[in-house]
Amino acid sequence: MTEKMHLLDIIGRQFQNHVALIHQSHSWTFGEIYQKSDEWRSLLVGQINEGEIVVCEFEADPFQYLIKFIGVLSAGGVHLSTRDFKKTEGRLQNLGMPWSAITKKINPIGIGFMHVATYEGYEYSIALPRQNLKPQLNIHTLNSSSSEAKSKIKGGRILETSGTTGEPKWVYWSEEGLIGDRLEWVDALSIGKEDVILNMHPLDFAHGMDVHLLTGLLSGAKVIHKNIQQDLIQSIISDIREYQVTMMSALPSHYAKIANACDDLNSCKTVRWGLTGGALLSANTVNRVKEKTGMDLTRLYGATEAGIMCIDFNVNQISPKLQAMDGVEVQLHPIDEVSNIYPNVYEPYFKRKYMASFYWGDQAKTQQSFKDGWYKSGDAIMKNQDGTYSVLGRSSDVWVNDKGELVCSGEITNSLLQINDLSEVVVISPKLSKKNISTFFCMVKEGNNLANIKSLIEDKICAFVKEYKVYLVSDWPKTAVGKPELRLLLNWCQ
């Protein structure tokens, strides 16, 4: 990027009458997004300080969510989306930081909000907390090695992530970093204004905003916004066919559901990028998706904090061999007792020009994960003889069993999912269990003989571990993106 530019400026340079976003029966052009985002920018300029957090209550309506997101960034603010206003407010008060809010209620908590303005035509108000805050946290101590931390914090966003255990973390991205990261991604995949992108993730998560919506806004492509938890799979298939979707990204389980529901091989033939996460794909999943939909799957891998780092541009590869994307440097670090026995297993550290800067308000986590420009991923990979990488999962999900064999949670999950009566599986490694034994949560389809299923499960588990605990359940708590709420499952099994 030779010129520093706001996201709003880039949107203003797209074809203004081109449809940018579709959700249910509504559609919005780039021009409409630009106009409404600019109204929010105008309202916020002069009311917020540069680098000041602006808390926005989460909205399922992608247009309303997006125009405030863009407006906050272009006004120099730091966008923070929340689904729990009270919890977020409490955390900010404890940090002692000045902050603002865009909310449906002028005084949402009763802590002394001051009404400033109402956005004409919308039931939203901007509220500013009054004085009597604790002394402001010295933002420069958040990450002494970060160039962002050494200078004044600029507009951007705080992305709340949950990690493997569900522990919340606030990751700060500058607007320049977001744009630079996504432009490199657009270039790598050759995404253009003729593409159609399908998003099935909430916009307050990285996949929803970064992989899909920002990619569309920066490239001029059209984005179809769906909700995998609310929309029927058949509706998703219909939209792929109707809008001739060319790019989508989903979990392997989502692709499996699409394959099971698809009755026409031509339904997904327009999809040239069927992207899926770093977790190992089973041969069964890959083959079924190809056979039922005609769709080829491409594996990508990347930490939320650092952006997409590795990808396999070859399709339908059962044995994953990822390579770092252009501009990404990789350092390989040993993983405790695992690397002592398997010296080709490492935790990768990444460095690139555009990355997240630090964990907002958490110096300890920042110093642990961001070191001298490198990001500590917390993942486990195997380096292959040809120099490529196979992602094994999180470093906490890889261990050595009593036979001295390398065991991965993902490998066991794929083995168990070969049992037709199981719809989902969660494997908790002994590293995460207080009892130091492997624990398995298996979601059983209705109307099955539990004793027979448990016997099948145990036969497969015994090939990997000696000591274990199995829970057969009909459902479990999930996060907003449909992943198991691991913190709650850990509490159940302690």
What does this molecule look like?
This protein is an alpha/beta fold and about 500 residues long. About 30% of the residues lie in helices and about 25% in strands. The strands form 5 sheets. Strands 2-1-11-10-12-13-14-15-16 form a 9-stranded mixed beta sheet, with helices on both faces. An 8-stranded mixed beta sheet has the order 6-7-5-3-4-8-9-19, sandwiched between helices. Strands 17, 18, 20, 21, 22 and 23 form a 6-stranded antiparallel beta sheet that branches. A hairpin with a 2-residue loop joins strand 20 and strand 21 (about 375). Helix 6 (about 175-190) crosses helix 7 (about 205-220) and helix 9 (about 250-260) crosses helix 10. The protein is globular. The N and C termini lie far apart (about 50 Å).
Name the descriptors.
494 residues; 28 strands; alpha/beta
Topology:
Layout: H1 7-12, E1 19-23, E2 26-29, H2 30-44, E3 53-57, H3 62-74, E4 78-82, H4 85-95, E5 99-103, E6 113-118, E7 125-129, H5 147-150, E8 156-161, E9 169-174, H6 175-189, E10 196-199, H7 206-219, E11 222-225, H8 233-243, E12 247-250, H9 252-261, E13 273-276, H10 283-293, E14 297-301, E15 310-311, E16 323-324, E17 329-334, H11 336-341, E18 345-351, E19 358-359, H12 363-369, E20 370-371, E21 374-376, E22 379-383, E23 389-394, E24 398-400, E25 406-408, H13 409-416, E26 422-428, E27 438-444, H14 450-461, E28 468-473, H15 486-493
Parallel strand pairs: 1-11, 3-4, 3-5, 4-8, 10-11, 10-12, 12-13, 13-14, 27-28
Antiparallel strand pairs: 1-2, 5-7, 6-7, 8-9, 9-19, 14-15, 15-16, 17-18, 18-21, 18-22, 20-21, 22-23, 24-25, 26-27
Helix pairs in contact: 2-3, 6-7, 9-10
